[in-house]
């Protein structure tokens, strides 16, 4: 049984990138996973993804482009304020302004750059570089 579908999705993407595959399939799908994949697509970390409903939790087909070095879920999902985001940047990202941290806020799931612009805090979900 899957305990954290987001962590399993990001781990599967990471493993497929390491092997050099051009696509991978992930089960089950959820709204949070789809939002995280939209952010990765907007920031050019993945090419495209497609969600298929199969009445068994859903299936996501992800097309990779080889630009992910590492990605993963942040556990536990720390609460973060705007002035403490930089501490987590140092912990999860290799350098300043390199990669992104995905945060769940009251205004939706966004990157840490957008959180700083909008002066929002939230819960840490994932990182990617």
Description of the structure:
By secondary structure, the protein is of the alpha+beta class. Strands 4, 5, 6, 7 and 8 form a five-stranded antiparallel beta sheet that branches. The chain contains four helices and eight strands.
Rounded radius of gyration (Å): 14 Å
Number of domains: 2
* CATH A-level architecture of the largest domain: 2-Layer Sandwich
* Shape, principal axes of CA atoms: globular
CATH top level of the largest domain? Alpha Beta
Largest sheet: 5 strands, antiparallel
How many strand units? 8
Percent range of helical residues = 25-40%
Share of β-strand residues: 25-35%
Topology of helices and strands:
Layout (H helix, E strand, L loop, with lengths): L4 H15 L3 E4 L4 H12 L3 E7 L6 E6 L6 E3 L5 E2 L4 H8 L7 E6 L2 E4 H7 L3 E7 L1
Antiparallel strand pairs: 1-3, 2-3, 4-8, 5-8, 6-7, 6-8
Primary descriptors:
33% helix, three-stranded antiparallel β-sheet, globular, Ribosomal Protein S8, Chain: A, domain 1, single chain
Summarize the structure in short.
It is built from 4 helices and 8 strands; from the N terminus they run αβαββββαββαβ. It has helices spanning 5-19, 31-42, 85-92, 112-118; strands spanning 23-26, 46-52, 59-64, 71-73, 79-80, 100-105, 108-111, 122-128.
């Amino acid at each position: 049984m899957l305990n954290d579908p987001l962590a399993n999705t990001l781990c599967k993407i990471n493993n497929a990138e390491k092997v050099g595959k051009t696509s991978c399939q992930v089960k089950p799908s959820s709204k949070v996973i789809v939002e995280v994949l939209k952010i990765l697509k907007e920031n050019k970390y993945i090419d495209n993804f497609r969600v298929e409903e199969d009445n068994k939790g859903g299936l996501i087909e992800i097309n990779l482009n080889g630009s992910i070095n590492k990605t993963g879920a942040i556990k536990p999902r720390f609460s973060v304020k705007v002035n403490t985001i930089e501490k987590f940047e140092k912990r999860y990202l290799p350098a300043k302004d390199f990669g992104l941290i995905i945060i769940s806020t009251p205004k939706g799931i966004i990157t840490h750059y957008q959180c700083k612009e909008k002066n929002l805090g939230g819960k840490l979900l994932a990182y990617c570089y």
